[in-house]
Amino acid sequence: MEPGRPTGYVALGHQRYRVAHIMDPALTGITDVAVRGDRILALGRNAPELVLLDLDGRLTGETAGLGDFVCGHGLRLLNDGHLAATDMDGHKIAFLDNGLQITGQLHCDELPRLGRPFNHPCDCTRGPDGRLYVADGYGNSCVHIFGPDRTYIRSFGNPGDGAGAFSTPHSLLFDTGGRLCVADRENNRVQRFDAEGTYIDEIGGLHKPMALALGEQGTLLVTDQTPRLSAYDADGILVGRCRTFSTYGHGIAVAPDGTIVIADMAPDRVTLLVPDQAPAIRP
């Protein structure tokens, strides 16, 4: 926390949030966050890659390394309770159990290639039917689909700025309507697809969107490099927006009580947006 400074507040729609920043040398190189149970997990680019905090933002002293990770990038809680951690420069995704032990990987045997898994991937999510989707976003400009047994099925997307093409697919998740949302960073948009990769529509008005999460009532939360945090309803209508407090809000997650957790970079820290009882708009 930053002692001696007054409390700041932001608003998304009708909800006001209290802002708290957690700064610690252990968070240097932070790149993403996830919330599981009573812990915030912060993924960093330095070993040990995982640093654990409690839900109030206090470092617990618990850490976990990720073995042969070269450069961590994405961390996402999957709907089966496992975590997917993406190694951007090791060209792989590791799956972690409740004990933060690696139970399996998707990888390319350290043979990155254009248009095929993998070439500097960014993020991984699981679909409603159990299939896995990987945003392969730095060397490639596509999304790969794998079966529940992690067998490769196919890829979609190509470099470009048209519908269904990508610049840097940086983050992805399924919304409550079963649509795959992909942060297409350098194209300044979030594209939405069905589970087969068929283009549906897109959300514009963003500046290099970085990270995606689902808020309360299924609100889509998007950080970008303005820097700011935007909230969209199921129809893609902007319902709230506030500033984030570092150069990049590179990762985002939401705790069960509605607290929004942001992996801030430059300066590196965890920022908490804690729901406040006072409404943002008074009647």
3D architecture notes:
- By secondary structure, this protein is an all-beta fold.
- 0% of the residues lie in helices and 51% in strands.
- It has no helices and 25 strands.
- It has strands spanning 8-12, 15-22, 30-36, 39-44, 50-54, 59-64, 72-77, 83-87, 92-96, 102-107, 123-126, 132-136, 142-146, 152-156, 169-174, 180-184, 189-193, 199-203, 211-214, 220-224, 228-232, 238-243, 248-254, 260-265, 269-279.
- β23 (248-254) and β24 form a beta hairpin.
- The chain is globular and about 50 Å long.
Secondary structure blueprint with pairings:
Elements: E1 8-12, E2 15-22, E3 30-36, E4 39-44, E5 50-54, E6 59-64, E7 72-77, E8 83-87, E9 92-96, E10 102-107, E11 123-126, E12 132-136, E13 142-146, E14 152-156, E15 169-174, E16 180-184, E17 189-193, E18 199-203, E19 211-214, E20 220-224, E21 228-232, E22 238-243, E23 248-254, E24 260-265, E25 269-279
Antiparallel strand pairs: 1-2, 2-25, 3-4, 4-5, 5-6, 7-8, 8-9, 9-10, 11-12, 12-13, 13-14, 15-16, 16-17, 17-18, 19-20, 20-21, 21-22, 23-24, 24-25
